[in-house]
Structure formats: C-alpha cells, structure tokens
UniProtKB/TrEMBL annotation, chain A:
Protein name according to UniProt: NADH-quinone oxidoreductase subunit L
A Pfam family annotated for this UniProt entry: Proton_antipo_N
Residue ranges constituting the NADH:quinone oxidoreductase/Mrp antiporter transmembrane domain according to the UniProt record: 138-429
GO cellular component terms attached to this protein's record: endomembrane system; membrane
Residue intervals of the NADH-Ubiquinone oxidoreductase (complex I) chain 5 N-terminal domain: 72-122
GO biological process: ATP synthesis coupled electron transport; electron transport coupled proton transport
Residue intervals passing through the bilayer: 6-22, 29-49, 89-109, 121-138, 144-163, 175-195, 251-271, 283-304, 343-360, 372-393, 419-446, 458-477, 497-518, 594-613
UniProt keywords, alphabetically: Membrane, Transmembrane, Transmembrane helix
Subcellular location: Endomembrane system; Membrane
Entry annotated with the keyword NADP: no
Gene3D superfamilies given in the database record: 1.20.5.2700
UniProtKB/TrEMBL annotation, chain B:
Organism: Thalassotalea mangrovi
Protein name in the entry: NADH-quinone oxidoreductase subunit N
GO biological process: ATP synthesis coupled electron transport
Gene Ontology MF term list: NADH dehydrogenase (quinone) (non-electrogenic) activity; NADH dehydrogenase (ubiquinone) activity; quinone binding
Catalytic activity: a quinone + NADH + 5 H(+)(in) = a quinol + NAD(+) + 4 H(+)(out)
Subcellular location: Cell membrane; Endomembrane system; Membrane
Annotated NADH:quinone oxidoreductase/Mrp antiporter transmembrane domain residues: 120-417
InterPro entries: NADH-Q_OxRdtase_suN/2 (IPR010096), ND/Mrp_TM (IPR001750)
Keyword NAD: yes
Segments traversing the membrane: 6-28, 35-53, 65-90, 102-120, 126-146, 158-176, 196-221, 233-254, 266-285, 292-311, 323-343, 372-395, 407-430, 442-469
From TrEMBL, chain C:
Localization per record: Endomembrane system; Membrane
Membrane topology: Multi-pass membrane protein
Keyword terms, alphabetized: Membrane, Transmembrane, Transmembrane helix
Name of this protein: NADH-quinone oxidoreductase subunit M
Keyword check for Transport: no
Residues covered by the NADH:quinone oxidoreductase/Mrp antiporter transmembrane domain: 127-416
From TrEMBL, chain D:
Protein name per Swiss-Prot or TrEMBL: NADH-quinone oxidoreductase subunit K
Organism: Thalassotalea mangrovi
Biological classification of the source: Bacteria, Pseudomonadati, Pseudomonadota, Gammaproteobacteria, Alteromonadales
Pfam families in the cross-refs: Oxidored_q2
Membrane-spanning ranges: 6-25, 32-55, 61-83
Protein family per UniProt: Belongs to the complex I subunit 4L family.
GO molecular function: NADH dehydrogenase (quinone) (non-electrogenic) activity; quinone binding
C-alpha cells in the first residue's frame, strides 16, 4: 500500500467523512477536510512524479510504476485486477487533476460558502477527484471504465447540484445520457478488444501491438469504438451537445469538470491507446477530422453566445478539438501538453468568470456587464491573462502547446495542409470571440441592474493568482512524455517557411478585427447588429440540439409512451376476453327449456351414431 | 346359491332388508330421529359387511352379479358417501315441521341401486340398478314439494333420465340382437350381418352412461337439477350416482369384449375433451355455487374418463388405480363444499344458500370453515399439497403413457380456465369481510353444528394427507388382472370387428 | 439434511405464527427474522464444515415418497443452490424488515404466507427429484398469490389471478415434459425415475428432445420472465405488497433462471444448441423492450418491474450463448438483480408508506426533506444501470464480454440497454427526488429498520461488486455442461 | 306362417322409438310427454322381444317384463309430479318450467 495506491483514497476518505456528517459540519471544518483530502493526494502525486523521473532518468526504457491491489474478477483466464499504473502520461494527468483540482477546491470553498448544502457539494467534488484519479491511473481498461463512469456520475450530481431548478436537472440528465452513449461505445470497444487480444490490461495490449498487432479490421473497429467513447466524454462532434447545457452547474464545477479534467478524459484515452490507433490510420485521420470540425463549429457557436459561461464552454470544446487534432496528426506530446496548459488557463478563465458572476449576483449575460476593468481590475487582469493564453499569445503557456500542435499538422501523414488551414482558421475565430468577450465585458460602462459586490476572500483570490502564473509559465513544465509515445516518423518534405509566422500572426490580426467590430459596441445591451437568423443559428450551437431532438429524442419518447400499456398484454387480455365470449355463448345452451334439453340429447345421440357409422 | 355367495352380496342383502324394515318402522312409529339413525346404522352394517365380502372376491353370484375388488372398493366409497349424505340430510330435514321418513327409504333404494349397478355383470342387473337409482333420485329431487324449483328440477330429471335410459335400453336390445348375449363377460362380436346393429347399440348404451356422468353433449340437465334439488340430494347426485356410473362404465369398457374397440375410444375421447372445455367454460362466470359445482363436475368427469382411453394391457391396472384415486379425490372435495352448503341451508327455506359471493371474508370470520373450503377448492383445481394435484398427476401419467396428446392439451387448457373461477371464489373468501352483517347469512345460520365443522375438518385433513403422502391410499388400490376379470387387450382394440 | 432442516424450521415457525400469532402480532417480525437468521447461520456453518459442496453436487436427505412411481423426497446442494438459498434467506430478512410498518392487518396469516413461500422457494433450489421440484415449484406459488391477493394494492385480485394462471398453465407444460422424461427413463433403464442425476444418463433423440426442452423452457421463461410471457410481471409486482414485490423480483424470478441453468442446459444440450438463436433473440428483445417500457411508466414499482424484465433478459442471453464467461456473468447478474431490485422495491415501499402513492408525478423534490433516502435511492438506481463498483456492472460486463465472441450483433443490441437503463434510471431518480418539491410535501427520512435494510443491501452490492470473486471462485470446477455446450455452440 | 326378417323388427322398434322421442320433443303438455316416454319404452320392449326370438331365448321377454315394471314406476312418479305441477301452476305446460337456467 504505497502512495500510488493511496492516491485516489485520500479524496475518497474525505468524501466519506463529508457525506456522513454532511449537515453537522460547519464551513471551516468541511473546508479543511475537503481541501486536505485533495491536498494530500496532490502532495502524494508530486512525490510520486519525482520518483518516476528519478527512475526514468536512471533507465532510458519507458518506465512505469505498477501497484496491484486485488483481483477484481476473472474473464476466463484473464485476471481483471484493481491495479494502478503510473507513467509520464498519467503523471501529467494526476498532476493536473490534483493540482488544478486543489486550487479549484480552494476557490469553491469561498464560492459556495453561503450554500446550505456546502459540505455535500465538497463531498461530490472530492468523489469526483477520486474517480478521475482512478480513471487516469487505471492499469486496465475495466478499471478505467469504472473511473470513466464515476466521473460521469459525479458530473451528473454536480450539474444538478441545485436540483430544485428543473432546468438544472434536465441539463444533468442530458449530460449523463449523452455521455452514456459514448460510454456504451467504449464498452463495446472493450468487448471487441478482449475478443481480439484476450486481455484488457493496457500495457499488455500495447505490448502485443509490437509482437502480434491487431488485424487491420479489428483495429479499425476497436479504434472507432474507443473514439466513440472519447467524443462522448470530451464533448466532440457529434456528441458535444451536452457541454454547453452543463454550465447549469456551479461555476467551480464547470471549471474543474467541464474545463480542466473530465472533458479531457477522451483525449487521455486516445493518447493512452495510441498503439492501437497506429494500427488504424483511417481512424487517426477521423480523429483529426473530428477535432478540426469541432474546433471550427464550437468557435463559430462561441461567437454568438451571450452567457459568459457558454462562451467559455464552447471555447473549451474547440480547445479539446485542438487536442484531438493533435492526436490525429500524431502530435501526441503537444496534444497532452495542450491538455495541461488548457487546464490551467481554462480553469483560470472559469474561476475569474465565477468571481465576476458572484460579484454580479449570478448575472451571466455579458451584455449586462461591461466596464468591469475599472470596477474589479484584479479579476479583469487575471481574466485577460487567461484569454491571452487561450489565443496562444506569444509567451503564454497556450502559445507553447498550441503552436506545437499546429506546427506538426502540415506534414503529418494522417493530417495534412487542409487541417493546418482549419487549425489556423480556428485560432483566428478563437481570438475573435475571446476579444468580443473581453471588449463587451470589461470596457464601456457597467450595464447591470445590481451594484457589484466583488468578493475579497483569500481563498477566492489565491487560487486565481496561482492559476494565472501557471497559465503563463505552465507550458515550460517538463513532461518527458516522449518516452510514452511511439514517435511517428514524419516525411522529410520541408514545410513552407511562412507557416510559422502566419500561425503566430493571425490571432493577433484577429484581435484588431475584434477591436474594429466589437469595441464600438462595448456599451450595447443587445447583441446588435445581425441579430438575424444566422446569428440565432450559431447561438443555438448550429442546430445540433434541435436536430437530435427531432430525430432521436422525440420519436423515442413518442414510441415509448405510445406502447406504455404494453401491446403484448393486450394479446393476453384478448385471450381472456375470448374465454368470456365463449362462456356467454355456451350459456345459451343452458336455456332451462326441458324440450330443448331433450333435443340436445337426441342431437348428441345422432352425432355419435354418425360418428361410429362413418 | 351357496353361503359364500350370500356373503359376497351381504351388503346388498342388508340394504334390502333395511328398506323393508324402514317401511315397517314407518308403519309402526313415525319419528324424525329414529328412522335417520336406523338408516345410518343399516349403512354402517352394510359397510362392515364388506369385510367378509372381501374373502369372496372374483365370485359370480348368479349370472347377474360378479363380485371383484374394483366393485367392492367403489361400493365402500359409495356407502361412505351415503353415510355422510344421511347425516347431512338429517340435519337438513330436522328443522322441517313435517316428518320425512320416506325420504330415507328413497335414499336407501338409491344406494341399493348404485350398489347393484357397481356389481352388475349382466344387462338385466345394469338395467335394474340403473332404474332403481334414477327413479328414487327423481323422487328425492322433487321431494321438497313446497319449493317451486324442486318441481322443475324433478320433472326435468324424470323426463330426461327416462329418455336417456330408454335410449340405453334400446342400445342393449340392439347389442343383444347382435350378439345374442346379455351378460357382459361373454359378449363377443357376433355375426357380420348385424355388425351395424351392434355398433349402434354400443353407442346408444354409451349415451345412457354419458348422460348420467353428465358428459357433453348430454350434460344439459346437470346444473338445473343440481340447483333445484335439495342440497343433500345434490350431494348424492354428485357423489354416489357419479361413482356408480363410473364403475359400470369401467366394467363395460374392460370386461365386455365388444366395447374393446378403437372407434368407441375415439368417440369417448372426443366426448371427454368436449366436456373438459365446455364444462370449465360454462362455470367461468357462474355465481351460484351449486350450478358451478355442476359445471365443474362436467369438466371433472371429462378428466376422469381419460383413464378409459387406454391403449395397452399393462397400463390397465395403473389407469384403474388413477381413475379410482381421482374420483375419490373429487368426491372428497365435493363433499366438503356440499356439507358446508347443506349445513348452511334448511329444508323449509325458500332455496338453499348457494351464492358464493356471500362467502366474502369468511376466512376472517370463521377461519376453520374458510380454510376447509379453500383447500377443497384448491383440490378441485388440482394444486399441490392437496390430493387433487396427485389425482391430476395420475391422470397426466395415464394420458402420457397412452399418448393422448389431444386430451392432455384439453386438460391443460381446461384447468387453466378452471383456475379462474376457483381462484375467484378463494379470493372472495380471502377478501375483507363486508361491513353489513346481512350479506353474510350464508356464513352463519342454517342447521350448522359443530359436527359439520368436524367432518369438514376431517375430510380436509384426508385431502392434505393424500396430497402429501398419496401412497397411504394409492398403494392399497390394486387392480391387477387377477383382482378384476379384464379381457381388454390391444390386439382386440385394433382389430376391426 | 441441512436444507430439509431449513425448510422444516421455516414451516414450523410459519405454523406457530399462524396459530398463536394473532395474540402477539407485534413480536411476529422478531420471531420470523430470528428463524431466518437461524437458518442462515445453519447454512453458513454447514458450508464451512463441508467445503466440497462447492466442487461437486452433494446429495442430502433422500427418502422414498411415491413408491409406485419411483418418486423420492431427494434433496441435494451445490454451489449454485447454495448461493441461491443464501440469497433467498438474505432477502427474506429484507422482506421482514419492509413489512414491519407496512402490514396493518392479519399479521399472523401474513407471516405464515411469507415463511411458507420462502420454504417453497428453498425447496425448489434443493430438490433433486423432479417431482419434488415441481411440487415445491407449485407450493411457493400459493402463499405468493395469497400475499398479493390479500395485502396487495387496489388492483390486487386481477394481478394475483393473472400471476397464478400464467405460472400454473406454463408449469403444467413442464409437468408433462417431466412425466415424459420419467417414462423415457423407464424405457431406457427399466424402472421409472424422476431423479435428476438419473436423468443425466438419458440419451434423447432429437425432435423429442427439442419438444421436452420447450416444455421446460416455457415454464422457466414465464418465471424469468422472457419477452412474450412477461405481462404477468408488471401487474404482480405493482400490486403486491412491498415484501411480495421484493420476494417476487428478488427470488421468484431467479427460480426461472435456476431452472434454465439446472435442467434446460445440462439435460437437453443438443436441443438448446438448436434453440439458442431463438432464445437469444428473446433475451435481446426482453432487454430492449423492458428498458423502453420502463421508461414509459409513471408508476414507481411498474418502472422497476419492467427494468427487471430487461435485466433478466441478460440472463437468457448469457445462458444461451454457451460461453463460460457469460455463464458466470449470468450467475452474478442473478445475485445482483436479486439485491438491487429488492432494494428498489423496498424504496418504493418506504416511499409509499410516507406518500401513499406510487405515481412519480406526485413525487419530486423529496431530496430536500429526505437526503439520505435520496442518496440510497441514487445508489440503488446506479446499481440498476450498471455503475461499475456495484455488482450489477460485473454481471452485465461479463455477460456481454462472453456473448460478444459468439453473437456480436446480439451483444451490440443488448448493450443499447446500458443507455436505456441510464435513461429510465435517471427518470426514476429525478422524477422522485429532484425537481421542485410539491407544496408542503415533507417526508421523514429513513427510520432505523429502513437504514438497516438499505445498509445491508448496499453493503452487499458494494462488497460483491468490488470482490465478485468471492462469489465466482466456486464456479470454476463445476458445470461442465456450460463448457461442453460451448463446443456444441461453436459447431 | 311367414317369418319376418329380424332387421325389420329392429327397424320397426327404432321407428317407434323415434316417434316416442319426437313426441317428447314436440308436445308441451306434460301428460303427453309421459305417454311418449311409454311409447319409447315399448319400442325398446319390442326390440328385446324380437332379439329374443332371433336367438330362441326367453331373456328377451324377461327384459320386456322388467321394462313394463319400469314404465309403471316412471308413470307413477311422473303423475305425482304432474299433480304437484297442477297444484302449483294450474297448468301442465312444460315450457313453464324454465326458471332454472344460465
């Protein structure tokens, strides 16, 4: 039982304590328990990562630490174990989960202070951290699936935390069910994988790919099914519709689950199973497509949002799109790095947004803000830092990771110039909507009804500042991920020299454009002009929701309700009805008339006589 | 006539003697109780007379009568039922103002007829027993002349049974014409030119018995007569008469060679199947318990005569055993219900208490009665823990051994339908008791005494005991060919006469 | 002897409570619970003393019963029956706990029925003689029907009659098949026999074997229940008192699965292989149909009832895919569904006692007043939709993994139920506990005995969900049948 | 004397029987029903006598005598019921007797 195996259990214990004594704990006590739960696991993971580096420095082989607890169940000969595996990839993940998670917990403690169910909230948050750690540390796919479902459940609980608003409950259900579709695909992937490789242990599977690789068809299917799971969790096309609605949850939740950690699980999964994906280049290409389309569509949708959190949600989708694109293009290291940096700056953005919302009495419409730069300068600065990282402003962490991704697109065997262009376009749109947000929110006059009440609690501010630092410098944190991934040999065809400058320059151009378009309208209370159909179309997320509703949800519900009385049962009732009709018919025989009875006697006799004669 | 033969038919002699003495007794002194107790003791004596009779099995007393284990068993059964009937009738009639001595005379006559029928080995004996039974039953059905229903019931029974028996007699005449033999044992297919005549005769005889066993399509009289007759008489009809008819049918089937014929079996099976289905269907929505029992008896007799459709010699013994066991179980269950009904009714009431909806909530008001009735109904429905299930199980074994798939299907469907009305009654008994007291006259009042409860309880115990340990009885029922003269064999069965 | 003792104890206590119970109706639950615990203790001690029951079947008491037909009172025990009997006893405790406040009238007769039903069910799992099996099979129906008909809800009579006729008619088919088997044994080995172990020697010609198999299968499919024969179940479950529903869903349905495992698969290998496609189709249809129907319901118990159909479909699927992984999955699913559905029905009962309604539309927002109850309900719903870490997940996962090899399409279809179960699960939880609370709806949170039963079930689900091996390790050696037919299935 | 073929005898009796049976069906007056019963029984008697003569036995005639006694008994009971009917309903229309049904 070393630190590795303990890692997920710290938050679990704090969860148990919090949930059991939920109402009896006052704010301080609950905070201490919740923070210590996550904090301990953060410290533990720091220690672990140090050890890991020590090991990997000493030996050049891709090192991994494995700790097995017990055999969960047997699939034929194969033992499915409850075992944890730590390698640079999962190291990055646990660092992000526990580190960013810790900071967000701190913020949440201040943010949710007034809530009557405070300790229940913190309990859910801790449970989420536990599940997420299991997900990223799992050494076999079944245990990963456990974490996978666990984070889904926690996300459900936290989105619907204020369960009394019907809207929240619906959003929570939507999030759970849509991701569940992905989960089912993932499960099918596991079945197929087990059928082919007769194991579900990740390292064994990857090892097999060197010795006896999967048949291309099998690999094709498996990769596709796993991708299905990934797009569900990571809110990529076509299963992305749940994420914007998920913003119904408290803002720290959006920061932790729907920006920093859970939504990147899909990226983690694909990166983890890279060995399998290499057997199925078509699917890698598909991954690239998924990512690029998502990042464009999400960007366009973000341009038209009026709710600050929805803007950030769509930008999250598009950023994860970049990660997917990177994975598809074989830029795994860059993708994971972007995952990390994105966790930093997106958490920062959400939390600052949360601070603003808190100050503005839960007003989330950006057109009722404005002029915040003067009124809450610190928050605004932090927010702008986040934005800078988001648009990959040179010198920020976002720049490091995103440029790395884009740089590898042009000559990647599975991607290519088309994807490069899409990525660039995406970057352009990103800075466009980012600065639309910035200009409308922070400049001009304050347009809200209520007076602003900025909170000054240290738990609110300290995490923000630390995140800001990370958002700037986070890109330079050493992650020797190189040992994890099989390097994709790039063809030596030289990519044009102007690529780089364009990639850097375009976002900056976009700022100017945004200034031209949006700054004049910094005082608008209405998103004019172009409140036309196109605007509404993109505000509604390009009509995906409507389509799914019409094509899937409504028919299903109709069908179900139509047959709610169970057609088969009618069949049964038909039989009984039949019996009763026969009964009433037979009663006619018993007319009580003596002469009729005598007649039946005679008829019966004649029938029998005929029977024997013939 | 040697002494041995007298011993063999001692029960019948005792009964006949008792009848004469009853008349003398009536002439001497009219007493409600005296005659009843005399009748009972006579029947008891007749019952005990079976012990010596046991020693004389397989002895022919004149060409008319043949004593064998099978008939002795059924006679014991019949006499025991009669005993119960007499006792019930006593309670039932006691309340009336006038004397009812003749009733008991008729009753004994009926039983004597039944016994002769069971013993009969000759058309003449069959005829005598048959008519003795039916005529005295007519007298008893119409006995309570103050009720208007009894008249109708009696008249219907008179006309229809007279018609039926004359049909049967015609059949006998035809058979006699065809074979020149009136005794069952020696009848063999006669000359070719009279084949048709003989066949017609057999069918007509079958009609006669089907009428008495109330098999479809000769069942129509059953519900009306059951309902119209005084409760104790209904009891006799349902038990004694059925048992006797079953016995004689078995004799015709297994002892007389000419009945040993495939076409007849097909006819019989079709009749049986029709009875199972129609009987249950008719009972489905019946609210009057007497009529319901009539309908269910139709179905049960249908189940019962499956045992006659046997295909091979070695299954005869098993079939007979199953048949006897089944009819015994059927009679036990019917007795419980009818004793209860008779106990709840009075001779001078306008009609008997025969609407089962009045039983609502009985289990909570009178747990003992409720339990007995429920178990009786379960036994009729053939649910395990009760003897009824074992009986049905035996029937299944016979049917399967002889591969009567059609009958099996009908049996399953029939009992499926049957469950519905048995369960409805049971649930009615289990339901919450009605708030108003007036509805529950059927659950109280009448000539009901503690003795009724005791007898019902005893019978219920027997049902359970047989249901859990059928061997205690089944191992006693031995009908190998050495105990009963069976000329049945499959060779003859298949042969075209 | 052990199982006979358990049956005897239960019967005895039943009679005692019936006779003297009317005086001390308050103390009856303790009496019943005490007897159940005693039985469980006996069973546990027996199992610990002779471990070899987990490796091969161990014949127990056997005495001649109906000699003329060679029928014995013969019982035996092996790991399958052991696990099921243990499950029965655990759920018996749950039944008694939920009955404490619910049953208002005729306590003595109630506990009589409850205990006799338990005795009957245990008898079914214990019988080594097919006649005895059928005997118990029917005996367990009577008290069950009485429970529904007397202590049920508004529409109880209809439900009870439907339940009884369905099972009775189907089991008559099985009876016919049983008798035919006995006669076949007579033809092949001289003497007639209803003994299970004798029957394993029979060799049955093909068309005949198929019909016999059908005779058994239909009876078990009705109990299971499988798709076309399921309609008795929603009514029975909905109308039954809580304990009745728990018993029905928790154990009675399992007798169907047990029958398939014990008789259909081992005795009619060839026929089952031929029949497998149909059976699997039925299984898949029940899985999906049940899930969809569950979503369509607005009645708490009815919803859970349909979900049971969906879950038992997994068992059919697993058993007829002839893979030993799936076979183990089926065993896990049986136990898992036994516990989780029992838990959900108890929840329904607990809510009904407070709200006097089963309509979800009349609930909602209860989380505010009863958070702990809500938490428990969430856990049990999570179990029902296969949350990893709880037992149901292991069952479904193993089933589908095992099935995928031989029937990928069926598996994919069945897997959609994972979505379906999430849908109706969320619908159930949110409909009852989330959303705006109705005006003035304030319910008491879990009481002590309710805590006890929820805790018990949750602990079991969690423990077995994390350590399912403790359940499965005994099933390696035995049941060659499953593996033999694997080869047959692959042919 | 000319001997009649036995089949004719049976035919006659059958016909007679049918006449009686139809009488039972057709007549609503109870008295006539009883009479029709008699006719049927006599038809049977004829058949027995015929059969007896065919086999040169006395059994036929014996059966006939038994049947006569039966007929007498039947009529006795029948008439008794008839009188009751007259008392109760003041008519002897058999169709009146149909309260028991269903």
């Amino acid at each position: 039982m070393t630190a590795l195996t303990l890692l997920p259990f710290f938050p679990l214990f704090s969860f148990l304590i919090l949930i059991i004594f939920s109402k009896r704990l006052n704010w301080q006590l609950a905070t201490v328990i919740a923070l210590s739960g996550v904090g301990l696991s953060f410290l533990a993971s720091v220690l672990l990562i140090n050890d890991l580096y020590a090991v990997s420095q000493s030996s050049d082989i891709s090192a991994g630490v494995r700790e097995s607890l017990w055999t969960w169940f047997m699939l034929g000969e194969h033992e499915v174990q409850v075992a944890f595996f730590l390698d640079p990839l999962s190291a990055v993940m646990i660092a992000v989960v526990t580190g960013v998670g810790w900071l967000i917990h701190g913020f949440a403690a201040a943010y949710m202070r007034e809530d009557e169910n405070y300790s229940r909230f913190m309990a859910y948050m801790n449970l989420f951290i536990c599940a997420m750690l299991i997900l990223v540390l799992a050494d076999n796919l079944v245990l990963l699936y456990l974490g996978w479902e666990g984070v889904g459940l926690c996300s459900f609980l936290l989105i619907g935390f204020w369960y009394q608003e019907p809207g929240n409950a619906i959003a929570a259900r939507k999030a759970f069910i849509v991701t569940r579709i992905g989960d089912t695909l993932l499960a099918l992937g596991l079945f197929y994988l087990f059928l082919e490789t007769n194991t579900l242990n990740i390292q064994e599977i990857l090892a097999q790919q060197d010795s006896s690789p999967l048949s291309s068809e099998a690999a094709w299917w498996i990769a596709l099914l796993l991708l299905g799971g990934a797009v569900g969790k990571s809110a990529q096309l076509p299963l992305h519709t749940w994420l914007p609605d998920a913003m119904a949850g408290p803002t720290p939740v959006s920061a932790l689950i729907h920006a920093a950690t859970m939504v990147t699980a899909g990226v983690y999964l694909i990166a983890r199973m890279q060995g399998v994906y290499l057997q199925a280049p078509d699917i890698l290409n598909l991954v690239a497509w998924t990512g690029s389309l998502t990042l464009l569509i999400a960007g366009i949708a973000a341009l038209a949002q009026e709710d600050i959190k929805r803007v950030l949600a769509y930008s999250t989708m598009s950023q994860i799109g970049y990660m997917m694109l990177g994975l598809g293009a074989g830029a795994n290291v860059a993708a994971i790095t972007h995952l990390m940096t994105h966790a930093f700056f997106k958490a920062l953005l959400f939390l600052t947004a949360g601070a603003i919302i808190l100050a503005a009495h839960h007003q989330q419409n950006i057109f009722h803000m404005g002029g915040l730069l003067k009124r809450m300068p610190l928050i605004s600065i932090l927010f702008v830092i986040g934005i800078a990282a988001l648009i990959a402003f040179p010198g920020t962490s976002g720049f490091v990771s995103k440029e790395a991704i884009i740089g590898q697109l042009w000559q990647s065997p599975t991607a290519g110039p088309a994807f490069w262009w899409m990525a660039i376009l995406g970057a352009f749109i990103t800075s466009l909507y980012s600065f639309r947000l910035v200009f409308i929110t922070f400049f001009g006059q304050y347009r809200g009804q209520h007076e602003l009440h900025p909170q000054r609690h240290f738990l609110l501010l300290v995490p923000l500042c630390m995140l800001a630092v990370l958002a700037i410098l986070g890109g330079y944190i050493p992650t020797n991920l190189e040992q994890v991934f099989v390097a994709v040999d790039a063809p030596d065809s030289q990519s044009p020299s102007w690529l780089h400058s364009v990639a850097i320059g375009l976002p900056l151009v976009a700022i100017v454009v945004a200034y031209v378009i949006y700054f004049p309208r910094a005082n608008a209370t209405e998103p004019v002009p172009g409140k036309g159909s196109l605007y509404r179309f993109s505000r509604n997320g390009l009509g995906f929701d409507a389509t799914y509703d019409a094509l899937l949800v409504k028919p299903f519900v109709k069908l179900a309700k139509l047959n709610r009385h169970d057609a088969i049962d009618l069949l049964v009732q038909l039989i009984s009805w039949n019996a009763f009709t026969w009964n009433s018919a037979a009663k006619a025989i018993q007319s009580g008339r003596l002469r009729w009875y005598a007649a039946t006697l005679g008829i019966g006799t004649i029938i029998l006589l005929l029977g024997v004669m013939l | 006539m040697k002494l041995a033969q007298f011993i063999a038919i001692a029960p019948e002699l005792i009964l006949s003697l008792a009848i004469v003495m009853q008349l003398l007794l009536i002439a001497l002194k009219r007493s409600q109780h005296g005659i009843a107790f005399f009748t009972m003791s006579a029947i008891l004596l007749a019952l005990f007379a079976h012990y010596p009779a046991m020693t004389q099995v397989n002895s022919a007393v004149t060409p008319l009568i043949y004593v064998d284990v099978f008939s002795l068993t059924l006679k014991v059964l019949i006499l025991s039922c009669t005993l119960v009937a007499v006792w019930v009738s006593y309670g039932y009639l006691r309340s009336a103002v006038e004397f009812h001595d003749e009733y008991y005379v008729l009753l004994l006559l009926a039983v004597l007829g039944a016994n002769i029928l069971v013993l009969a080995n000759h058309f003449a004996a069959v005829f005598l027993g048959f008519e003795l039974l039916s005529l005295s039953l007519v007298g008893m059905i119409g006995y309570l002349h103050l009720r208007q229903h009894t008249l109708e019931a009696g008249f219907k029974y008179l006309i229809l049974s007279a018609t039926a028996s004359s049909i049967m007699l015609l059949g006998m005449a035809f058979v006699y014409g065809a074979t020149g033999e009136l005794s069952l044992a020696y009848q063999v297919p006669g000359q070719q030119n009279l084949r048709l005549l003989g066949q017609a005769g057999l069918v007509l005889i079958m009609v006669g018995f089907s009428f008495k066993l109330s098999l479809v399509p000769f069942h129509t009289w059953t519900p009306d007569v059951y309902q119209g007759a005084p409760m104790p008489v209904t009891l006799l009809l349902a038990t004694v008469s059925k048992a006797a008819m079953f016995a004689i049918l078995v004799k015709f089937w297994l002892v007389s060679a000419i009945f040993n014929n495939e076409t007849l079996q097909v006819l019989l099976l079709s009749i049986a199947i029709a009875s199972m289905l129609l009987g249950n269907l008719l009972a489905l929505t019946q609210k009057n318990i007497k009529r319901l029992l009539a309908y269910s008896s139709i179905a049960h007799m249908g189940y019962l005569i499956i045992v006659l459709a046997i295909q091979s010699q070695q299954s005869v013994a098993w079939a007979l055993k199953s048949g006897v066991f089944y009819i015994l179980v059927y009679i036990l269950a019917t007795l419980i219900l009818m004793i209860y009904l008779a106990g709840r009714s009075k001779a001078h009431g306008v009609h008997d208490q025969d609407d089962w909806r009045d039983w609502q909530g009985m289990i909570w008001r009178r747990p003992a009665h409720g339990a007995c009735l429920i178990l009786a109904l379960l036994s009729l429905a053939g649910i395990p823990l009760t003897a009824g299930f074992i009986g049905k199980f035996y029937l299944f074994t016979v049917a399967i051994e002889n591969q009567l798939w059609g009958a099996i299907a009908a049996l399953i469907i029939g009992s499926g339908i049957g469950l519905y009305y048995y369960l409805s009654i049971i649930f009615c008994i289990l339901a919450k008791p009605p708030v108003t007291q007036c509805q529950t006259v059927a659950v109280s009042g009448g000539s009901f005494t503690i003795s009724h409860t005791t007898v019902m309880a005893m019978l219920t115990v027997i049902i359970i005991a047989l249901g859990v340990f059928p061997d205690i009885l089944a191992s006693q029922l031995m009908f190998q060919s050495e105990q009963i003269p069976i000329i049945f064999n499959e060779a003859a069965l298949k042969s075209e006469w | 002897m052990i199982l006979t003792n358990i049956i005897a104890i239960l019967m005895l206590v039943a009679l005692v409570s019936l006779i003297i119970g009317s005086k001390f109706s308050r103390s009856l639950p303790y009496l019943a619970a005490g007897s159940v615990v005693l039985c469980f203790f006996l069973l546990a001690r027996f199992a610990s003393n002779n471990h070899d029951i987990f490796h091969q079947a161990m014949p127990l008491l056997s005495v001649p019963w109906i000699t003329s037909l060679g029928i014995d009172y013969a019982t035996f025990i092996d790991s399958l029956s052991f696990i099921l009997v243990a499950l029965t006893l655990i759920l018996a405790l749950v039944c008694i706990l939920v009955s404490v406040n619910e049953i208002q009238h005729h306590h003595n007769f109630y506990y009589f029925n409850l205990l006799t039903a338990l005795a009957g069910i245990i008898g079914v799992f214990a019988a080594a003689d097919l006649f005895l099996f059928f005997f118990f099979w029917e005996v367990m129906l009577l008290p069950m029907t009485a429970l529904i008909a007397i202590w049920g809800h508004e529409n109880r009579r209809y439900a009870a009659i439907k339940f009884f006729i369905f099972t009775q008619v189907s089991s008559l088919l099985m009876l016919v098949a049983i008798i035919i088997m006995a006669f076949i044994h007579q033809q092949q080995f001289g003497e007639i026999s209803f003994n299970y172990f004798d029957w394993q020697r029979l060799n049955l010609s093909m068309p005949l074997q198929y019909w016999l198999m059908l005779g058994f299968f239909i009876a078990f499919a009705v109990k299971l229940p499988s798709f076309p024969f399921h309609t008795w179940l929603p009514d029975a479950h909905t109308q039954a008192p809580t304990a009745g529903s728990v018993l029905l869903a928790g154990v009675l349905l399992k007798t169907g699965a047990y029958g398939l495992m014990r008789f259909v698969l081992p005795l009619f290998e060839q026929a089952t292989v031929e029949f497998a496609p149909i059976a699997i189709a039925l299984g898949v249809i029940s899985i999906i149909y049940g899930a969809v129907m569950a979503f369509a319901q607005s009645d708490f118990k009815r919803l859970v009832a349909y979900s049971s159909i969906s879950h038992m479909g997994f068992v059919t699927l697993a058993l007829f895919s002839f893979s030993s992984i799936a076979y183990h999955g089926a065993i896990v699913t049986i136990v898992a569904h036994g516990l989780s559905s029992a838990a959900l029905f108890s929840m329904a009962g607990i809510l009904y006692q407070r709200l006097h309604t089963r309509e979800l539309s009349k609930m909602g927002g209860l989380f505010a007043s009863a958070p702990r109850m809500g938490g428990m309900l969430l856990v049990f719903v999570a179990a029902a939709f296969g949350m990893p870490g709880l037992l149901n997940f292991v069952g479904e996962f193993m089933t589908l993994t095992g099935t995928f090899a031989s029937h990928p399409v069926a598996t994919v279809l069945a897997a959609t139920a994972m979505i379906g179960s999430a849908i109706y699960g969320m619908y159930l939880f949110q409909g009852s506990f989330q959303g705006k609370p109705h005006a003035g709806v304030q319910i008491a949170d879990l009481l002590a005995h309710e805590w006890l039963l929820c805790g018990l079930l949750f602990a079991l689900l969690l423990y077995l969900g994390l350590f399912p091996q403790s359940l499965l390790m005994h099933f390696e050696a035995i049941y060659p049948a499953a593996n033999i037919t694997v080869t047959g299935g692959k042919l | 004397m000319i001997d009649i073929p036995i089949t004719h005898v049976f035919m006659i009796s059958a016909l007679l029987f049918c006449v009686g049976f139809i009488g039972v069906l057709a007549r609503r007056n109870t008295l006539f029903m009883l009479m029709s019963l008699e006719v049927m029984l006599n038809a049977v008697g004829l058949a027995f006598v015929g059969a007896g003569s065919l086999w040169q036995e006395a059994d036929g005639q014996i059966m006939f005598i038994l049947i006569l006694t039966l007929a007498a008994a039947e009529v006795a009971i029948g008439l008794a019921l008839l009188i009751r009917m007259q008392h109760q309903r003041h008519n002897v229309d058999v169709d009146g007797l149909s309260q028991l049904r269903g």
